[in-house]
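Q:
My hope is that you can spare some time for a protein that puzzles me. I hope you can help me see how the letters and the C-alpha cells relate. Thank you; the sequence and its C-alpha cells follow:
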Amino acid sequence: MSGATPIADTSHLMGRSLPLAPKAPLALRHLPLAPDARAVDRATRPIHAIWETTLRCDLACRHCGSRAGRERPDELSTEESLDLVRQLATLGVLEVSLIGGEAYLRDDWLEIVAAVRAAGMQCTMVTGGRALTADRARAAAAAGLQSVSVSIDGGAESHDRLRRVVGSHRAALEAARNLTAAGIPVAVNTQINRLSMPDLPGVLDTVIALGAHAWQIMLTVAMGRAADEPDILIQPYELLGLFPLLATLKARCDASGVRLLPGNNIGYFGPLESVLRGTFPRGHKGSCGAGCSTIGIEANGAVKGCPSLQTVPWTGGNIRDAALADIWERAAPLRVMRDRTVDDLRGFCRTCYYADECRAGCTWTGFSLFGKTGDNPLCHHRALEMQARGLRERLVRVAPAPGLPFDHGYFEIVLEEVPRE
C-alpha cells in the first residue's frame, strides 16, 4: 500500500463504548410538491429501491450512519407496506433491497418478501446476521428471498469492535452458512475505514470461502455514529494506498468468480477506474444515482433519492400523504441530481477535468462532511492531483453530530504539504 500513511496500530481507535440508540423523531409530513412533473422527471425511473423496513436493530455498530437500534415510533403497518410494494412495482422498480436496522426483526418481513416477489420484482436483503438462524433462513427461502448480503467489516477482532458485540463476526459467518444451506445465494458487503482497511485481503479470503457471488465495498461515511469517531475514517490521502490494493483484490475476485461491486463513494475517474468498473455498461461510474436510478424509503414512509441520505433535508415526501410516483416526479429533493450541473459544484470539484461527468460524485459522502453539496475530497483522482503538487488534504471535524438518527457533524479541509518520510 505504498503512498498511504501506514495503519499499523489501531488499538487506540477501539476502546470507547457507545451510547444507547436514540429515539427517532416522527416522520416529516405534508411536504410541498411541484405543481407538475417535467419531461425529465417522467422519463427518469428508479431501477433499485432500498427500503429500510425498520430502524430496530440487534446491533449498535460504531460506524452506523443511521444510529439504528430502536424502531421508529411511526413505522409503516403491514397494510401500508404492502401498498408500497404495489406502488414500487407500478413505478418500474426492478429490485427491492430490504435493509434496517435489521429487516428480519419486523414480524411481517416474510410477508413483505413474498409480496415483492409476487409483484414481479427481485427481492434481496442486507443483514448484520446476528440472529439470522437456520429457521429464519429457510423461511426466507420459502418466501422467495433471492439473495442476502451479509456485512463483514474486517477480521474477527476489527469486525467485533466495530459492531460492538463480541462474537458478531462468528454470527455473521454462521448466518451466511445458514442462508447457503437454505438455498439462498450469499453476497458480502464491507465498509472500508481505518480499522477494516488492513484486513481487506483476509475479508476476501472469507468471501471466497463462503462461496459468495459478490462483494460490495464502500467507504465508511461521516454520518451518525461514524461522525462520532473521526479517527476511524479514511483520510483523502490514504486513498493513494487503498486503490492499488483494491485493484489487486479485483484481480483475485475475477480469478475466484466473485463479482466486485464498488459502491458509489469508491471513485472517481482515477487511473484504476477501468480496472474496478471495466465490466460496468460504460466501463466507469457516472455521477450520483440518487433520484435517478435509485430510490430510498425510510420505515415510516419517508421517500428519498438514496437510502443513505440524511432525513433532513433529503426527504421529498411521505407515502402517507402522496402517491409514490408523485413524490418521485415532483419532490425537489429527488430532482437534485437530475438537475445538477458544473455550476452547482464548489472547490476542487468545480474545476476538475471530470467535473461535468462526475459532478462531485457521491452526494451522501460530501453532504455528510460539509452539510452542503458540490465538493467531495474522498476521490482517488483528486488525491493523485494533490500528490503531484506535493500536497495532501486532511479532514478535521470542527463540529460534532447532535446524536440523532441520520445526523452528521461538520468537517473542514486542511491543505498541507506531504510530510517527508
Summary: The first helix runs from residue 39 to 43.
